[in-house]
Amino acid sequence: MVKFRRDYYAGGLMILIGVGAVFEASTYKQGTLMHMGPGFFPVALGCVLTLLGMMIAGVAVGSTPEGDERIIPENPQWVGWACIIGSPLAFMILGTYFGMIPATFGCVFVAALGDRTSTWLGSFILAACVTTFGVLLFSYLLQVPFPLLRWGSP
């Protein structure tokens, strides 16, 4: 009898989110590789997420249980979890009211603070580098219509 472990739950959750993303994004126009529609990228990411979830759950079938297999660890890292959840929220809020530069910087900075070994300076430098790369890639190279800076609601 196969014992349910964390890997099963993680794989199952990834499969569930991936399939949900594919179904939701399939209602949008897909387009082609040269002219992608709004549903192309979410469908691709949903498929990748589903495949990764199946691989994680498949590896769990062949492995032997290791020590304590509780779903939630004994000492959960609440700060890291809060930063992981807060990072995309920061991107959405800052992107809506202030533009791409503050949104990208805030998202990466908050996510980097979730690492136990990170420092404020290291998080700042990482956020600045990722923001610079993101602006060059998405704004200038790919010409994504997302204002770099704005003030207030759209």
Class inferred from helices and paired strands: mainly alpha
As residue ranges, the low-confidence spans are: none
State the assembly state of the protein chains.
Answer: single chain
Number of DSSP-assigned strands? 0
| Biggest sheet architecture | none
**Mean pLDDT score, rounded?**
86
List the secondary-structure elements in sequence, H or E. Answer: HHHHH
User: Radius of gyration, rounded?
Assistant: 19 Å
Q: Which range best describes the helical content: under 10%, 10-25%, 25-40%, 40-55%, 55-70% or over 70%? A: 55-70%
The N- and C-terminal alpha carbons lie at a distance of 56 Å
Principal-axes geometry comes out as: flat
The percentage of residues in β strands lies in under 5%
Describe the protein in words.
With 154 residues, this protein is mainly alpha-helical. The chain has helices spanning 6-25, 40-62, 78-97, 100-113, 120-141. The relative contact order is 0.10.
Topology diagram in text:
Layout (H helix, E strand, L loop, with lengths): L5 H20 L14 H23 L15 H20 L2 H14 L6 H22 L13
Helix pairs in contact: 1-2, 3-4, 4-5
